[in-house]
Amino acid sequence: MPYGRLSLHMAPSFRLESTETDRLVAFSDAVIAIAITLLVLELSVPTLPAGSTVAVLPTVIAEQWHEYLAYLLSFLVIALYWVLHRRVFIHIDRHSRGILWFNLLFLLFIALIPYATGVFVTYPSQLGVVVYAVMLALTGFSLTLLWGYASRKQLIEAGLASRTVEIQAARFLASPILLLMSAVIAVFDPTIAILSWVLLVPINAVFESRLIASLEDSPIESETPP
């Protein structure tokens, strides 16, 4: 078949593919669900010292605090990134090869979070904190790239206010910037770096309130599910 005729036959299928985002979202949800489930494997069953009684079990469990912290934080961060990823595809009504590859980059880092959690659990000091924070930051930056590409290529729904697009971009950037800063802090004091992660909660709450206010200002956006 001549190339020109082949292109004519393929063009409609490419147009149809660009509007089909259900499989992309379903695949992403599956990868995120697997990653968040694998986190529990990093929790080890406490081992009692030889010759000790079960009475020391609470102490042994307490000594594993970094494992529980890593599990809880990783669960919450992956959950947050899932919420933000969902927000991205609520507003994207078509996609391109660029969207596919940026989404796969995001999933690549999501899949590595259980590994980073394992490093942090094994080395809950400078090395573990730096690796963990950098991996979470790269995940956030990849999601920011996905949103930036979609908005720049005008793949998001028509009528979405530019202010909402900017708030979304700022929110996507906020968490990874904080995490990257904590990685730098960890070089000098890992404990302060870990404590700085608490700031993720108020920072995301502030951006969430601003985003809701922006959505309420737009008739088109107010119909979008929260």
TrEMBL record:
Catalytic activity: K(+)(in) = K(+)(out)
Entry membrane topology: Multi-pass membrane protein
One MF term in the entry's GO annotations: potassium channel activity
Record InterPro entries: TMEM175-like
Record keyword Transport present: yes
Subcellular location: Membrane
Annotated transmembrane regions: 24-45, 65-84, 104-123, 129-149, 169-188
Cited Pfam families: TMEM175
Keywords: Ion channel, Ion transport, Membrane, Potassium, Potassium channel, Potassium transport, Transmembrane, Transmembrane helix, Transport
Major place of residence: membrane
GO cellular component labels: membrane
Domain of life where this protein originates: Archaea
The UniProt record lists the keyword Plastid: no
Similarity comment: family membership: Belongs to the TMEM175 family.
Name of the protein in its database record: TMEM175 family protein
Source species of the chain: Halomarina rubra
